[in-house]
Amino acid sequence: MAAQKVLYDAIVIGAGIQGCFTAYHLAKHKKRVLLLEQFFLPHSRGSSHGQSRIIRRAYPEDFYTQMMHECYQIWAQLEQEAGTQLHRQTGLLMLGMKENPELKTIQATLSRQGVEHQYLPSEDLKQRFPNIRLAGGEVGLLDESGGVLYADKTLRVLQDAIRQLGGTVCDGEKVIEIKPVLSVMVGTTSQSYQTKSLIITAGPWTNRLLRPLGLELPLQTLLVNVCYWREKVPGSHGVSQGFPCFLGLGLAPHHIYGLPSREYPGLVKVCYHHGNNADPEERDCPTAFSDIQDVQILSHFVRGHLPDLEPEPAIMERCMYTMVS
Predict the structure, then answer these.
(1) Mapping DSSP to helix (H, G, I), strand (E, B) and coil, where does residue 233 land?
(2) Residue 245, SS3?
(3) Taking all residues of the chain, what is their mean pLDDT, rounded to a whole number?
(4) Among 94, 109, 107, which residue's Cα sits nearest to residue 61?
(5) Which label site among 20, 36, 287, 323 has the fewest CB atoms less than 10 Å from its CB?
(6) At residue 301, does pLDDT exceed 70?
(7) Ranges of H-type helices in 177-288
(8) How many CB atoms lie within 10 A of CB 325?
(9) Where does residue 268 rank: exposed (0-12), middle (13-18), buried (19+ CB within 10 A)?
(10) Interhelix angle for 62-82 vs 101-112, to 10°?
């Protein structure tokens, strides 16, 4: 007699940070959960790879700042459960003109929500962060709670936790069919599964999964250049030297952000928070290379604001953002 197929409480498609955290919480609540990933883990094809991401309480909107209070608690709890550090507080320094509306809105939000922060005029900022140079009229706003999340390390911790909690993680299985009947049938390149609930956290691939069901979300996939810039003095922009995460507001058409040196010895990540429309299946085709204009914007910023970095990127990688269009 053939074995009866497992009926999962939930299947999660996509093992990036959203999918991993979703499956982790389901498993913690004693749900029978399956996490499916089309690529073999770990991989650099989506949006969650790499060693570092920024975490902050500094947002223009009150509800995001309020939400981050719970987020920090969840990160601390995960660190405690895993027995390993997944977060490093560095502060998040926002740079902009003194009258920049977004900067003023963020400062007001931080004040209303009781988040520790500092307003730094040019001279104060120069003393606190000597590696950062401001142009005339620019100021700094420091969210003391901002910092770095260890992204790839977190994915491994979550995937291990899902398994330890009784969940299943299957990589190298691309979903090719979804049939919602009494339960939901999910067919992959390897086999089919049955589930009571289906959760899609597939980022750029979301609409490819939804279209056969007659659904489509207003999503836009951007291919972003992730640039690393060489220190003129190795080690001078690390966390141990007090170098913060930073966010440039109103200094270019879109935000510029950066993190202390970590991924590559002697290199600092500084990126432009925008990119070109991309098809996730063609992101590495020779014809898919992003416009170099964003790199020129970054070079101008580095030359003016980070004089102790070489003004041309030493390494360029890629990441995909999935935005609401």
Answers:
(1) coil
(2) strand
(3) 94
(4) 109
(5) 287
(6) yes
(7) 206-210
(8) 10
(9) buried
(10) 60
